[in-house]
Amino acid sequence: MTKHIILPALAFILFIGRPTAQEKVVTLPEVSVTSIALVAPNVNKAFKKAFPDAEDLNWYKYDKEYLAKFIIKDMNHNTLYRQNGVMKYDISYGYQHNLPEKIKDMVTGVYDNYKIIRAINIKVTERNIWVIKLEGMKKYLTVRVENEEMDEVESFSKAETEN
Q1: CB-CB neighbours of 67 under 10 Å
Q2: CATH code for the structural domain at 95-163
Q3: Is 43 exposed, middle or buried (0-12, 13-18, 19+ CB in 10 A)?
Q4: Which CATH number does 33-89 carry?
Q5: In this structure, how many other beta carbons lie within 10 angstroms of the beta carbon of residue 113?
């Protein structure tokens, strides 16, 4: 009689303990998480000296470095500092009115049938690079200006639409 009770009980336990679907292990790529952070005093001092007019400042810790996101004269800035307070780069995003007159004249002189739609300034060590996005009737262009030299680095044709 106990045999009749034990066998169905054992079968029930084996059936319940069995997974109904195969488990799959998925490995996700490594992610570097940034968060609003407190900055080292030497980084804060170097930032205030370089950007005294910064508004809407947020700091983010990125590995062992600090990223400052802020606005100056309607240009959005992303500036990365090392722990010792040395600035690695500053990238600022603006528009035609943010370009220096000399660079604006250079670009519009060559691309007179194009409208400047974006201006990005990249400062790294001794380099000062402007990346300018242009829109024409049939194309989008990207030009780079550094040391009074201009290069066309990108060109996209607009899609033709049927009327």
Answers
A1: 17
A2: 3.10.450
A3: buried
A4: 3.10.450
A5: 10
